[in-house]
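During the no-cost extension, the postdoctoral fellow (Dr. R.K.) reprocessed legacy sequence entries with the updated structure-token encoder. One reprocessed record is reproduced below for audit purposes.
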Amino acid sequence: MSSLVLATFLFAAPCKADEKPVSVTVVIVLASDKHAVVDPKLKELAKEVQKRDPKLTGFKLVATECKSIPVGDSATINLTDKQVLKVQVNQAKDENGRITLTLSPPGMDAVSYACTCDKFFPVVTPHKTKAGDQLIIAVMAKPCTAKK
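Re-encoded structure tokens follow.
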């Protein structure tokens, strides 16, 4: 698998009726080996990705998408080049403060992992644009705190 996957794989637990939706944020990034301009907001992401692929030197923030997804449900997020990311919330915050998600990035098998709230999980997808830029997504999940 050509993704930056350093997570624990967990099985999903059944959904409880009283669980609140999870707020999922997806950052869409294009990385390049043709320039060295790194968006200041992506400095830490660039460092982590370059540990695996030092040829990627330029990082551009394309968009940020946020979705509120009930536990047990999924949502589709439009990326660049008509690519999509499917995100499923498998389990709400557990006793260790982790939320379990399953991601289905373009050109990859589904990846299930437990993420820490307020921490991004980067995935380098195999998709390249016509210009040769590599599609990277960074996903963060946290329990929704907004009241209805």
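The beta strands are 22-32, 58-69, 74-78, 84-91, 98-104, 111-116, 121-128, 134-143. The longest helix spans residues 43-52. The remaining legacy entries will be reprocessed before the final report is submitted.
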